[in-house]
Design a protein that fits this description.
Number of helices: 11
Number of domains: 2
CATH class of the largest domain: Alpha Beta
CATH superfamily of the largest domain: Exopolyphosphatase. Domain 2
CATH architecture of the largest domain: 2-Layer Sandwich
Helix content: 40-55%
CATH topology of the largest domain: Nucleotidyltransferase, domain 5
Oligomer: single chain
Number of strands: 11
Strand order of the largest sheet: 8-7-6-9-11-10
Largest sheet: 6 strands, mixed
Shape: globular
Structural class: alpha/beta
């Protein structure tokens, strides 16, 4: 098999903007030539009834996109995809941002529907060689604006939903002061909201859960904090995370102020304000879905788009 030309995918998320440069090797395996994430937080205000991308957020987003496009150009990709998810999808001025990017870069942004986002995440997960043995499993992807839930049967997607349960959205909605310690009067309604939305979604959870895979920056942060305690890189920590680890981390983090969270070794400063809501969401999801451990994967939406393009 002839090695393919690389493709570039830039994923414009609510909390971060990421690039993947990928190709297929001579054996047909999808390989990453470069992967990078920039924190841009374009989604400030996403929880309002009529979300609007702020000028500051759009400026940060455009800057990140231009930087990642410049890096991608070094690989001479045969195709460049710019895709946007919850923040741009929900914003009343999302078209303004897309036009601003088009004017500055000559690149169009494709806004994915929730279903498209979920299905690309699912396709990306199938590319993870560490998951080759899994046949029936759940996939959960927690971003800044949304939570995607998928169920696989014999490695085929049987259910896929996208819910407005992202950690930026829930932080704005339920935490009055994200810089203050987390209190039970905030945790309880937040967790109830997550359970209610999961129930309303129609997603069918088995009484006995199959294997569960988790993707997204929140679980990466869990592993980064665990790794820092043992002087390990995130990638060198165990990929399987027990839900007891998430509960213990939430108990440890809840009494801390924002400055205290930022001081935790391994904690990305840009995620410290939304990480508490992310942990509450993950713990609640695990309880609702009867899951006692997650397998963390770094293969996600970008990998799914790259695989489709290279095919």
């Amino acid at each position: 098999m002839v090695k393919s030309s690389p493709v570039a995918v830039i994923d414009i998320g609510s909390n971060s903007i990421k690039v993947l440069i990928a190709t297929r090797d001579r054996m047909g395996q999808l390989k990453a030539l470069k992967s990078r994430t920039l924190d841009a937080r374009i989604s400030t205000g996403i929880s309002s009834d009529k979300p609007v991308l702020s000028e500051e957020g759009m400026t940060r987003g455009l800057g990140a996109i231009r930087e990642l496009l410049a890096e991608a150009s070094e690989y001479s990709p045969s195709k460049i995809h710019l895709v946007a998810t919850s923040a741009v999808r929900d914003a009343t001025n999302g078209a303004v941002f897309r036009q601003r990017v088009k004017t500055a870069t000559k690149q169009d942004i494709r806004v994915l529907t929730g279903d498209e986002e979920a299905n690309y995440i699912g396709r990306g997960l199938i590319c993870d060689p560490e998951l080759d043995e899994l046949q029936d499993f759940y996939v959960f992807d927690l971003g800044g604006g949304s939570l995607e839930c998928l169920a696989f049967k014999k490695r085929k997607i049987k259910q896929a939903v996208s819910l407005q349960l992202g950690c930026v959205r829930l932080t704005e909605k339920f935490l009055k002061n994200p810089a203050a310690p987390l209190v039970i009067d905030e945790i309880t309604p937040l967790a109830k909201h997550v359970r209610d939305e999961l129930k309303k979604s129609g997603f069918k959870f088995a009484i006995t859960a199959p294997a569960a895979v988790f993707t997204g920056g929140s679980m990466s942060t869990v592993r980064a904090i665990k790794g820092a305690r043992h002087q390990l890189r995130m990638e060198d920590t165990p990929a399987v995370i027990g839900t007891d680890t998430l509960t213990e981390m939430l108990d440890e983090l809840a009494p801390l102020t924002l400055d205290g969270r930022k001081a935790l070794p391994g904690m990305p400063a840009s995620r410290a304000d939304v990480f508490a809501a992310a942990l509450v969401t993950m713990v609640t999801l695990a309880d609702y879905a009867h899951v006692d451990r997650f397998h963390h994967s770094l293969y996600n939406l970008r990998w799914g788009l790259a695989a489709e393009t290279l095919d």
